[in-house]
Amino acid sequence: MTKTVVITGVAGFLGSYLAKTLLNTNGIFIIGLDNLSTGNMENLQEIIHNSNFKFLKADVSSSDILQLVSLLSADEIYHLASPASPKFYQSTPLDTIDVNISGTKNMLELAKRTNAKIVYTSTSEAYGDPEVHPQHETYRGNVNTWGPRACYDESKRMGEVLCYLYHSLYNVSVKVARIFNTYSAGLRNDDGRVISNFVTQALNGKDITVYGDGLQTRSFCYVTDTIAGLMLMMEKDAANGEIINIGNPIEYTIIDVAYLAKDLTKSSSLISFHPLPQDDPKQRRPSIEKAKKILGWEPRISLEKGLQLTIDAYKKKLNL
């Protein structure tokens, strides 16, 4: 029997990778939704003509989405729609709020109507600039509601509240993934996030731009590991009603990542320092004990290996 899987934000970085991965599984039909505000149809070139994939240009923030008859067959929903890079969510803050609140409510309502399981992709940004390190799921965060990142951080947190309500009031099988920095060559070159910036700049011989002193830390998870975590969350009933960190617990300073990108690309780029953006977190590292226990999941790809894979693919993109 064929299972129908709905993926919102399907033309984005994670959504397109998830769709391609799921289509390698027999008995799955995917309905992919995207309004293409930050998603790119190029990401779907490999699968757009696959008979088990249907693309719909649609805005999940609109209540009209619930009128689409094809969605009423949904067995599973991955709600990934939302700008994720500060560059993009700060340029459209009200739309970002809309997709993470109205869009999330619509997808939860769809799950309620069709009795579908749903994975909501929240974010490590829910922890804000954390005062607890590493961040575990019970930590409530240190988020500024009055700043340029708040449109994303706080709307994702509100999305989690909606997930809690639909689970507790209507028994919807919802699982919340707090995703930590995911990367691969699938990130747009102009995405503005650390890995895409550093690799693109290094390959082009431009200055590698580090914000602040570069001593702030991040944990980077290669896309195959993140996708495996999301799929396990969908599969495991033990994840129902749970918030689970999906990220790599190995922590790097930004300056170390800049030098690693420079070394692996054999680049002559200089490293330049720029003012730190407002509310930029000083530390970010997940506790993944819950993911290990409930999902049997932990990342497998090291930063050095993942960076090399990313560099090799970017070279092809840039004809280097």
UniProtKB/TrEMBL annotation:
GO terms, molecular function: GDP-mannose 4,6-dehydratase activity
EC category: lyase
Disulfide bond keyword on record: no
TM region positions: none
Sequence ranges assigned to domain NAD(P)-binding in this UniProt record: 7-308
Domain of life assignment: Bacteria
Subcellular location: Golgi apparatus, Golgi stack membrane
Keywords: Decarboxylase, Golgi apparatus, Lyase, Membrane, NAD, Signal-anchor, Transmembrane, Transmembrane helix
First-listed, main subcellular location of the protein, grouped into a coarse class: Golgi
Topology class, membrane: Single-pass type II membrane protein
UniProt family annotation: Belongs to the NAD(P)-dependent epimerase/dehydratase family. UDP-glucuronic acid decarboxylase subfamily.
Protein name, entry field: UDP-glucuronate decarboxylase
Species of the source: Bacillus bruguierae
